[in-house]
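Continuing from the previous page of notes. For each protein in this section, the sequence appears first, followed by its structure tokens. Read the first protein now.
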Amino acid sequence: MKILGIDTSGLVASAAIVVDDSLVAEFTLNNKKTHSQTLLPTIEQMVTMSGISLEEIDAIAIAAGPGSFTGLRIGASTAKGMGLALQKPIISIPTLEGLAYRAAVSDRLLCPLMDARRNQVYTGLYRMENDSLVCVSDQEAVDINEIISKINDLGQDVLFLGDGVPVHQETLAEKVTVPYHFAPAHLSRQSAGAIAALGRVYYEQGKTEDAKDHRPVYLRQSQAERERAQRLAKEAATE
């Protein structure tokens, strides 16, 4: 079984190929270039270097959101286009679940944090049970203090990872009352390898969709949508 993984949900652009239980190739860039510049060339180079053609792929696993609105749209349009052209199914992976899967060998509570600005994070809580990733608290967009309160209430040793960690590190240090740890650099950001590996699990469980049906998961409105809603509310109030 060959799974192509794509993750453009954050600053990292990542593509990978997993064959059965082996990560055959993974290209990851975290250099602030736009995903529209890097994603397709990365996939093309990975295919060339690995010797595995896109026609051989059984399915395309994509980090479906939440995350950067622009990044998710680029990833979704790329996955959909390839899926339709190659007649391959899409495996939609929740972004936070894929990020937690990076640390799937840990026996700690796993808390991925993605910076959502305005003191908010995209986050969820996970743990490994019987070699499977279990969702303790589903992914959501919340104030950083809300997820800290939830973690403290659970009272378990926790591992933080994601680009939200450096943004909120001082708050975590001040307010987390349980033992906590931060993932090392090579495990702390999104990875298409994790998306593809988890995609293989989803594929075997029959969790696929037709490429034409795939939609990103945003969890909240974009800034433009929020500003439009505020403007309309002000206009309605003055009428």
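Done with the first. The second protein uses the same format. Note its length before scrolling.
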Amino acid sequence: MKLVVNNMFNNNSLIKKDAKKFKRQYKNFLKQVKKYNKIAIFRHIKPDFDALGTQFGLATWLKDNFKDKDIKVLGDNHVAFTPRGLFKETDKVNDEWFNDEFLAIIVDVGDKKRIADPRFEKAAYKFKLDHHPATDNLFDDEITDTTKAAAAEEVCSMLLSFKKYPLSEEASKNFYIGLVGDSGRFQYSSTSSLSFEVAKCLLERNINITKIYELMYQDDLSKLEVIKFILNNYKISEHGVAYYVMTQKDLDELHLASEQGKDNVNFFSTYKGINIWCSITEDITEPCFRISIRSRNYVINEVAKKYKGGGHASASGAQIKDLTELDQFIKDLEQVIIDNTK
């Protein structure tokens, strides 16, 4: 496996500045990695590109540089948000493995309830690396920077600053997938100069971005039926809130799992006159309707919090009990637009 030693960054490097900001945490991260023979990497349930890309990228870096460590990648092998075969399978680990002391590294999740494997609780030390607003304070140490476009950006910026520890092509590929996925191919407002600097460093590891994009985004023809459904059923409110609703009946007819309902929420992102856009999908296991909310220039996470959710300023999740709450939810989003256009 090809390893590339991390560059000596110039004084204006944003990665170098980031390292100064988190100097104590970076030092402690390496200390904990060196201390424990067993390391388990956790992330959120129903993982997306960023969760899996960060998890497998970090696992690869650890295995490349600390060959004597027992590294495990934990969580469900979900494919609703990532194509099958893009990532390796996660590890199947019996409960006995957790009887010894181990380090838990939790990535891309701020809410304890959403960590995919509850056995992280057994860890002797818990270190979180994330870019979501924190909801739980249950970690021994953490780096949570909500200015980052992706957890992959957070973790990769740190690893690139460790000049003694190379970043391989395989690790770089995984991190690039995570960064591209959560930045919306560098289109979302969370994308920054640091995002591009990290991407540049990953490209220097000779990753094949043409192949990566093909694996990430190539769809089969069944996707056209979903797009047809959205075009036939979407609504736009007076002030530019666009949304579509998928009931369980719709999901069944389209052969979709509930969590796939939000896959096309960004279908509306490039249209003039649409300021906030949402997917609203029934989840009969709760039961509720789960909502993914996105915006271009409006802060929507306060509305999300009102509806049992939260997240970033321009990308959040929420839920309503049933469709009787939908009108008020849309009105609340409309009010955000009204309040910011006076």
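What the second structure shows: The chain is about 35% helix and 20% strand. Residues 37 and 162 are 20 Å apart (CA to CA). We return to this in next week's lecture.
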